[in-house]
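Tokenised fold entry reproduced for absentees:

. . .
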Amino acid sequence: MPRLQLGDWINSGVNWLRDNLSWLFDFISSVVQGMYDGVNTVLSGPEPLLLAGILALLAWWLRGLLPAVLAFLGFALIDSIELWGEAMNTLALVLVAGVITIVFAVPLGIWASRNRAVSAVIRPVLDFMQTMPAFVYLIPGIFFFGLGVVPGVVATVIFSMPPGVRMTELGIRQVDAELVEAADAFGTHPRRTLLRVQLPLALPTIMAGVNQVIMLALSMVVIAGMVGAEGLGSTVFQAISSVDVAMGFEGGIAVVILAMYLDRMTSALNQRVSPLARRALAKEKAKALSGLKVLHWRPATSVAMVGVVVLALVAGGMSMFGGDDEGPKVSANVGKGQSVNIGYINWDEGVASTFLWKELLEQRGFKPKVQSYDVGALYTGMAAGNIDFETDSWLPTTHASYWSKYKSKLENLGSWYGPTSLEVAVPSYVKGVKTLEDLEKKSSTFKKKIVGIEPGAGEMKLMQDKVMPSYGLNKNFSLVKGSTAAMLSQLDRSYSKKEPIAVTLWSPHWAYDKYKLTKLKDPKGAFGKGDHIDSLARKGFSKENPQVAKWIKNFKLDEKQLTSLESAIQDAGKGKEQQGVRAWLKQNPGMANKLAPVPGGADQKGKDAGAAPMIGYFPWDEDIATTYLWKNVLERRGYKPEIKQYDVGSMFTGMSTGQVDVEFDGWLPVAQKQYWDRYKKNLVDVGSWYDKTSLEIAVPSYVKDVKSLADLKGKAGTFDGKIVGIEPGTGEMKLLKGKVLKEYGLDKEYKVSDGSSPAMLAELERSYAKKEPVAVVLWTPHWAYSKYKLTKLADPKQAFGASNQLHTLANKSFPKKFPEFNGWLKKWHMTEKELASLEQAVQDAGKGNEEKGVQKWIDANPGIVDKMAPVTS
């Protein structure tokens, strides 16, 4: 029978959906992520024991005093084993998934109960949803929604929906038909029959379905952890992948406590909402022994709600006014709180290098988030943009299949360690086995198995596809798939008993220091040449994070440094990787500054730190850009600059009276000559920082036969008789009106409209979009010449005068008042490329985000701060 390409059809369908319905998946992802973030914020905000008190109070209301005490003790235990944050992440995930499931399951169950055809159709669908392994849902989930909470929630919803639908349908169908007929006989509308008769009587069964939905949702936490969701799932997944009994037990007991609480509370909720259950509860209370009544007494709903509100207000107040916890020590605030997502494979060198960079980035003011993934999920997540970078790609051999698949969506930031090697290793007490060829002859000695690592690892694929066939090992050996930790655990057990064992290993690895092992030679070169360990990033990361990308590109560790780092982390223990990194950094002073250099090691303070110069600026692009640049630089040097926007006339007046200390946009000797001549007695020219400027009128290049100012004559009708100007007080506007138009006989034909630079640029953009003629006042340098195709009108009579320079002008007292700042400005100079890129960065950041644009430009130009404002000891 020919093979049905079912998998290929499904794959094609998934790809089609991803390519054509991405908007829908983005919408779903935004809604689900927003719901999760909201619930998680509420649960994670209060102090743990206060929230435990609120949850215990709810347990008291629903079940009684003893369950409330046990609930509080259970949550206190979670807090004591330092898994409170993860538990609340998990609870948020379960609540969100549960709500979404119930919202869909109950109406669907009602529909099925009232329509036999619908019931017959959805039954096999529900069977499929519940019996399909939940792991399978993760594959399209990652493609559609990326990594994180959303694919975990989606898989949870699909897996937990069947009992909600079935129990709702069952509950309604079990309602006594005579009661329904009686309601119909009295002329009750079917909708009222459903709401007033069927649903109240079916409520116990429906609530049992809700309980099962919650329990199934909670059982999926490990699945969510595998795709990068926060919570206990991540803890359990790490414990499984590292065979860590302690971590696994602690994560598991936290899941059990949550499961017991949710199970008991959702079961008891039925007694509060169902009329039948409330009557049964009343009978139960009446039969209770008098001495135990206190254990069965439950507060009234109003009393319980008052208690919850009071505790919630106290918790909220503590959250608002608390926050004394110290964060990571920031030695140089380069990142300014920017988030960076780092993924890693749970291999020793991956863990070591990842937590090293987590610590370094925190010291540099970033907020890195690290998450463990399987190899395939890691590459998929980077390609989708969910992960910023990772540091453990073995290329060109081990991870060749992943690199070839995703390289168009990734960046290679360079190798930081090499050469490496992949190998099969055996204990040195196993005699007569020195090569892979020797291994083939002694399969019985090793019980016909080679102990491997994660099935998705490149070495495992290489072993199965090439190495084992090359040496005939596939005939007599099976490759045991598991995890790195499981392989090492098996190696330790066999080594302690002196039993033969063959394991997949690689160099460097600390196992070669702990055990005496023989690396089996590979005479056929099946493993290929030695790899190097590379850092990979998502496409566009280097452009968006140039400083971090530069650090990682220059990142290098030798074998001694890497093995000592791995050893420090091993000594610190699971869950304390960062403490191990800090201990290693203390043993290697200067390493942090070497790996993530910041000029001066940090933001050095200037000699006049604390001084507060008043800086004025015009709303012109070069002035806005340079003013915010100097504001950033001065703040790094400990100054407290103030900036304020002025008109040109007001600026010069303010500088002459000392209200403004300095400005950076003096166009001399021509454009602002009149102001300089008037106020120069009270001003000082600190120096020019940019050369070869020009003033001009520009028109779009699609306007033909207008190449010079002389060509404007007689064409006023083409431009509606106007030239779009800027601020009326600027030197260029006065020069244009007072001299240029007259020189070319345009003063009677054209009117120059007063306005502002932004208004002129807006008019230019509107006209350009409609291909309408427009003449605007411009100057060089300006980013508009890069954005639009414009013609600078030639000025053969040189009415605009000679080229200007951009000068720093200041009040005459400025050099004495701010000697250090004055010295920096005298030596300051910018090239055309530097200024254009700075203006562009500010433009890209948008109005109100000038400081962010400047910061991004500084990050892209490391060392610029020291160049502009050097601090001498």
User: Anything to note?
Assistant: The two ends are 84 Å apart (CA to CA). Residues 84-114 form the longest helix (31 residues). The longest strand covers residues 410-417.
